[in-house]
Each structure stands twice: as structure tokens, then as C-alpha cells.
Specification:
Largest sheet: none
Distance between the termini: 46 Å
Shape: elongated
Number of helices: 5
Helix content: 55-70%
Length: 117
């Protein structure tokens, strides 16, 4: 079988130079490159499988310096927070109602689109 590949002149010059250096014809050199590329395992094979990563994570001992016990009650800290003077509950509720209306319209449009044959 024969295939013609047109390459840019600068690439041909580089390939020819490397083929000359290895004392090969340009065709032999290109065929060798292609053969190696086909025989080379996929890049994905260089990465560990998800299962291998999970096993490694499970085998890693816990880092005691990563744990910081609570210094106070979160509920108390939240209750003691000052009110946000810029927060307008009524405005927020109006904006949320608009968002819900828009979401329902999108869901309806999706349902209509999905129901079409």
C-alpha cells in the first residue's frame, strides 16, 4: 500500500538531516518514527488507575497536624454575628422569586423539547 503525505519544507529538512545522521533514507527514518509512535503505549497507561490511587490514599496514614479541634461553638459564633445592614430580606425574596420563575420556565422548555419526537 502506498500513501502520499505532503510535509512543509522545513519539516522535511529536519527529518532529512536526522535521517542522514542515522545513515538512513528519509523514507526509512519516517517509517521508523511512525512505527515507534504506533508501538508506544498510550499516554493514559503512564497514569495510575483510579483504583490504584484510592488504594494509595487509603494506605496513607492520617496527618495529625491536619486536624484542628474546635475552639468554640459554631452555633454560638453564628448567633453572635452582627446583622448585615446591607441585607434587604424583601429585595432578596423578590430576586429569589425571579430566579425560581426563570428556572421553572427553563425546565418547562426542556420538558417540551424532550417530549418532541
Amino acid at each position: 500500500m502506498s500513501t502520499v503525505i505532503t510535509l512543509p519544507d522545513n519539516l522535511v529538512q529536519i527529518l532529512q538531516s536526522q535521517a542522514d545522521h542515522q545513515q538512513m533514507s528519509l523514507t526509512e527514518f519516517v517509517l521508523e518514527i511512525l512505527d515507534k509512535a504506533i508501538q508506544k503505549p498510550e499516554l493514559e497507561d503512564d497514569f495510575p488507575l483510579l483504583e490504584e490511587i484510592i488504594v494509595e490514599i487509603k494506605a496513607t496514614p492520617p496527618d495529625p497536624t491536619a486536624y484542628h479541634p474546635a475552639q468554640a461553638s459554631l452555633a454560638e459564633a453564628l448567633a453572635a454575628m452582627p446583622d448585615d445592614p446591607d441585607f434587604d430580606l424583601e429585595e432578596w425574596q423578590q430576586e429569589w422569586a425571579k430566579a425560581e420563575t426563570e428556572m421553572k420556565a427553563i425546565e418547562l422548555a426542556d420538558a417540551i423539547r424532550d417530549a418532541r419526537p
